[in-house]
Specification:
Length: about 350
């Protein structure tokens, strides 16, 4: 259970209702919500003083804040996140459903035209900026670039030979630095001409296997003599543990061979990282809601992003749709709109001939 879920479970009914009504009031009006306003809407009859005490407790927990000394309260980013994760009641209205269905059209339509209509419809329905990522392409690539957005988020930019550009966000392996990502991109760009993403994945898989085999050949004598041993053999974290250097000198082991093994290991690690980068560009999951500074792409503008991937007939994620708007987005309405749009686009792309 995360901290938000724990806090929510420990709140009593009154605190939970005050919190929910403050957030809903703020999302609806964009204005702070005061204690006197809540006395008219609370389920139980309580005084403004009692509500103010509850608000102070919620403020102490970091869920509410007062923009001015005499004003009411508004939710913090942590409060918005807890509301979205634990209290959001999301329902899709009939009018929104009909408008989405009309925008998608039939499965016989051109995919590009359908995506244009979906983007326009999402903007019109939600009054926000729409985000539409078209189905991933399997075509020759001209250039590839990895961009670090945060310690746990990166962007891969794929420029295809026909000029088409795709941007995909992924979670990089732990510990990867921006310089490591630039190095990976440089190596891939030396190989990329006329090759697809699948081609590159195959090349890197073969490179990893070749480096591992070279190390095996060079280390064979050391292992036979008991001077070295594999740790976690065959796993991603495998290492060749070489025993004391004095023993190696006594055995007359060639120092150049040891340096060659070390160099091959460095190359093996780089190629494994690159192979993992390529694999991660194919991954994604669920409806994601990024609020304010949670998303480095939108932190400076104080915006939120609600995005959902869609799948083809093979249940493979091929694209995504989303909405960008202010942090006081009407999440209860926007989330089901985005989710339903993604499901509908996925069904259309999985239709006959897709």
């Amino acid at each position: 259970m995360n901290d938000n879920a724990r806090i929510l479970s420990e709140m009593n009914d009154r605190s939970r209702e005050v919190f929910r009504r403050v957030v809903e009031g703020y999302l609806g009006s964009g204005e702070p919500v005061g204690s006197r306003t809540l006395t008219r809407t609370m389920t139980e009859q309580v005084s403004a003083a009692t509500i103010r005490n509850v608000m102070q407790d919620l403020e102490f927990l970091g869920l509410l804040q007062a923009p001015h000394i005499s004003a009411g309260r508004i939710p913090t980013q942590a409060g918005l996140r807890m509301f979205v994760d634990g209290l959001l009641e999301a329902q899709l209205g009939d009018a929104d459903r009909e408008q989405i269905e009309a925008s998608v059209g039939s499965s016989e339509d051109d995919v590009s035209a359908m995506m244009d209509r979906v983007g326009n419809a999402l903007s019109g329905i939600t009054h926000g900026a729409s985000l539409v990522l078209a189905p991933k392409r399997e075509a020759p690539i001209k250039h590839i670039e990895f961009v670090s957005l945060a310690p746990d988020r990166a962007l891969v930019v794929l420029v295809f030979a026909d000029g088409h550009v795709e941007n995909r966000v992924f979670v990089p392996p732990p510990g990867q630095t921006p310089s490591a990502m630039r190095e990976a991109a440089n190596l891939l760009n030396a190989l990329v001409e006329g090759r697809t993403l699948s081609d590159l994945q195959g090349i890197m898989t073969n490179e990893v296997a070749a480096r591992r085999q070279e190390i095996d050949v060079l280390a064979h004598d050391l292992i036979e003599k008991g001077l070295a041993v594999w740790e976690n053999s065959g796993e991603r974290s495998e290492r060749l543990i070489v025993r004391g250097r004095s023993n190696l000198l006594d055995e007359g082991t060639d120092a150049a061979a040891l340096e060659r093994i070390r160099s091959l290991f460095d190359d093996l690690e780089r190629k494994r990282d690159i192979a993992e980068f390529l694999d991660l560009t194919e991954q994604g999951e669920g409806v994601r809601i990024f609020i304010g500074s949670e998303n480095k792409l939108f932190s400076l503008s104080g915006s939120s992003l609600v995005v959902s991937p869609y799948m083809n007939a093979d249940r493979k994620i091929v694209g995504a749709v989303g909405v960008i708007g202010p942090t006081r987005l009407n999440y209860g309405r926007i989330v089901p709109i985005v989710d339903y749009t993604a499901q509908l686009v996925g069904r259309m792309l999985s239709g006959p001939g897709r």
